[in-house]
Amino acid sequence: MNFMNEMGVKVWRKSRFCAFTVLKRLTRENCQKLNHRFLLPLHNPHLQLAATAEAWEIQFQDKRYVFPRSDVVELPINNSTSERIAEYICSELIVMLGQYNISHLYTIMVGVEEAPTQMAYYRRPLHNEG
To answer: Is 61 within a domain?
Structure first.
């Protein structure tokens, strides 16, 4: 899976700086949490979930799966599609960006690529563009 970010930025005459390195670092942190782990959609109504100290047990219809907890990332989403993962990453980035002055940003968009030519995007307004 590959990820991309896009920001809508208001540029002022006196200040043309935008902390792209900050966004890149925060995106990398988010992606490292998800990389090479099973993405568990906690709000999927079709899954029966049971957690123990060591593992997650997942039942779907007549199938049963057990994953070590260390291999699982619990996500507050209803499905592990590219669209839902993009929305989740975008929400996480907005929370992480909260510690910075982002008054000059008016939108953020995250894209998640499953395969070449198969990409989903999620865009969220941060402030009024005006």
So the answer is: no
Q: Would residue 8 count as lying in a domain?
A: yes
Residue 88 resides in a domain: yes
pLDDT tens for each residue of the chain, 130 residues long: 565 665 565 554 444 445 677 888 888 898 899 999 999 999 999 999 999 999 999 999 999 999 999 999 999 999 999 999 999 999 999 899 888 877 777 888 888 888 888 899 999 988 655 5
Quote the domain boundaries for residue 106.
2-44+73-125
Alpha-carbon torsion angle 74, 4, 124, 9, nearest 10:
140
C-alpha span between 115 and 119 (Å, rounded): 7
